[in-house]
């Protein structure tokens, strides 16, 4: 029998960061690969809207320089992460409290992933942990709450972490988790994150004033129902690196991956209607023949193509973008609301962190609401931001309100951090729904899927010439 003709060795369905990074690993091994994407651009949920010179992320997940896959993924050498100020800025009792700042790690930096391969962020983060342990106790002098006429920016004070002993205990815990092997964290008993925090021996003030708002921001989970193992991994990344955003917007990460693939690898505007182990059927181009198929879509789209795949629950995320010519004086800090006094979980003057996101003379303030948004989300956010920043927001212009109902897959306990990526020989799946619901998780699942594919194909070099995409069907 004649061997059938293949358009490519592997067809990847979905051009998000998982699919594109898997394509890099396969093409680097000499496996001809075609990436099919239904949308007219790459990136999936890592998208950025351009409005009048502003770059507005739709979800705006926080990245960490401690994510290993950002350094290990081919094609991301040119990625520049713009870091927030070390630690976080907490709003509590009408004041701003900085947690984690120290002169040793306050150097301004915008490292590319090439430079961070040799300059790991753990040392600076450990200095931040020591600062938490040595911070002075809060003063007892009261600070008035903002009245109906917002006052100036609340002055910074010491972190609301309780006594010096409480701070030292937290500092020691973060230092341990920064250096703990991942395997040790995954061996801990698994509970919902909120219950696990209460069982760790830390005082309630420390948990409510620092860990709860921090983990809510990192996990996009305001109620902390996430598995304690996933929460530990998030804390490890926080303690071992710097939080940051991609220079130019979230879309830069998938665009870097797409641009550095061989020409003709990525095909957008191609809707896949069915898959098998050696065939992908599309609405526009008919059948696409291959030796293996990798599904790299979101969880719901993957389950539509392969009924029986688990569809997780999702966390809702709403991002509200404002602009003003008089930005709040919080610098490059990530501001969290420890009081949970409104819908905003965290906010930042993002243009201070990444100047490329706003035109000259304008500031971009991006604020994240977790969970179901209030009915009039824009008004509620504007009122909350006035209290958080301690300034009037009446003249702030709303640029966009992005609500994503299925923004981040939930990771409730028990959560399988390494869901199978090999369904059967010739059929594979990857994405943030197979590992952790982070960019690190999406990239790592792609790493695992590409390794499984290469092992099954047994290929050290190109097996078939990459043929062009079949012609589109006539209307």
In terms of topology, how is this protein built?
Blueprint lengths: L9 E4 L3 H12 L4 E5 L10 E4 L2 E4 L5 E2 L3 H5 L8 E3 L4 E5 L2 E5 L13 H4 L5 H13 L21 E2 L6 H16 L2 H5 L6 H6 L5 H16 L8 H13 L2 E4 L5 H8 L6 E3 L3 E4 L3 E4 L3 E4 L2 E4 L3 H7 L8 E11 L10 E3 L6 E6 H4 L9 E8 L6 H13 L7 E13 L12 E3 L2 E3 L9 H19 L18
Parallel strand pairs: 1-2, 1-15, 2-11, 7-17, 8-9, 15-22
Antiparallel strand pairs: 3-4, 5-10, 6-10, 7-8, 12-13, 13-14, 16-19, 16-20, 17-18, 18-19, 21-22
Helix pairs in contact: 1-10, 1-14, 4-5, 5-9
What's the gist of this structure?
The chain is an alpha/beta fold. It is 30% helix and 22% strand.
Query: Biggest sheet, in brief?
Result: 8 strands, mixed
Distance between the termini: 35 Å
Strand content: 15-25%
Whole-number average pLDDT?
Answer: 85
The share of residues in helices is 25-40%
Order of strands, main sheet, comes to: 9-8-7-17-18-19-16-20
Number of helices: 14
User: What is the molecular shape?
Assistant: globular
Could you name the ranges where pLDDT drops below 50 across 5 or more consecutive residues?
Answer: 101-111, 114-153, 460-466
Class derived from helix and strand content? alpha/beta
How many DSSP-defined strands?
A: 22
Rg, rounded, reads 23 Å
Question: If you had to describe this structure to a student in words, what would you say it looks like?
Answer:
This protein is of the alpha/beta class. The protein is built from 14 helices and 22 strands. An 8-stranded mixed β-sheet has the order 9-8-7-17-18-19-16-20, sandwiched between helices. A hairpin with a 6-residue loop joins strand 17 and strand 18.
């Amino acid at each position: 029998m004649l061997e059938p003709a293949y358009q490519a060795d592997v067809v990847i369905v979905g051009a998000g960061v998982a699919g594109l990074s898997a394509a890099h690993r396969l093409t680097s091994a000499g496996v001809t690969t075609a990436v099919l994407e239904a949308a007219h651009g790459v990136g999936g949920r890592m998208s950025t809207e351009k409005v009048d010179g502003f770059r507005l992320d739709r979800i705006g997940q926080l990245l960490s320089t401690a994510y290993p896959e950002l350094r290990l993924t081919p094609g991301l050498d040119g990625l520049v992460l713009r870091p927030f100020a070390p630690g976080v800025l907490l709003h509590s009792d009408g004041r701003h409290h900085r947690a984690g700042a120290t002169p040793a790690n306050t150097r301004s930096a915008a490292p590319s992933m090439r430079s961070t391969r040799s300059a790991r962020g753990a040392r600076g983060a450990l200095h931040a942990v020591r600062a938490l342990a040595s911070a002075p106790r809060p003063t007892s002098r009261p600070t008035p709450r903002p009245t109906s006429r917002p006052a100036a920016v609340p002055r910074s004070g010491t972190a609301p972490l309780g006594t010096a002993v409480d701070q030292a205990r937290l500092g020691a815990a973060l230092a341990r988790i920064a250096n703990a092997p991942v395997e040790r964290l995954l061996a801990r008993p698994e509970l919902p994150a909120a219950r696990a925090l209460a069982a760790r021996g830390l005082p309630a003030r420390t948990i409510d004033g620092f860990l709860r708002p921090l983990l809510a921001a990192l996990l996009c989970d305001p109620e902390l129902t996430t598995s304690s193992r996933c929460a530990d991994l998030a804390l490890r990344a926080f303690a071992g690196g710097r939080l940051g955003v991609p220079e130019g917007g979230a879309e830069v990460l998938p665009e870097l991956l797409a641009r550095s693939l061989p020409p003709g690898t990525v095909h957008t505007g191609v809707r896949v209607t069915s898959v098998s182990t050696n065939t992908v059927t599309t609405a526009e181009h008919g059948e696409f023949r291959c030796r293996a198929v990798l599904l790299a879509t979101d969880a719901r789209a993957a389950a539509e193509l392969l009924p029986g795949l688990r569809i997780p629950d999702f966390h809702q995320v709403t991002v509200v973008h404002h602009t003003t010519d008089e930005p709040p004086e919080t610098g490059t800090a990530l501001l969290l609301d420890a009081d949970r006094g409104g819908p905003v979980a965290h906010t930042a003057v993002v243009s201070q962190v990444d100047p490329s996101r706003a035109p000259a003379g304008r500031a971009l303030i991006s604020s994240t609401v977790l969970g179901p948004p209030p009915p009039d989300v824009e008004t509620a956010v504007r009122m909350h931001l006035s209290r958080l920043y301690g300034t009037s927001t009446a003249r702030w212009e709303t640029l966009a309100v992005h609500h994503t109902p299925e923004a981040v897959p939930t990771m409730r306990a028990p959560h399988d951090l390494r869901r199978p990526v090999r369904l059967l020989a010739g059929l594979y799946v990857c994405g943030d729904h197979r590992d952790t619901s982070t960019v690190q998780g999406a990239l790592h699942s792609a790493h695992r899927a590409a390794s499984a594919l290469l092992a099954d194909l047994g290929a050290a070099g190109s097996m078939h010439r990459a043929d062009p995409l079949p012609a589109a069907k006539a209307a």
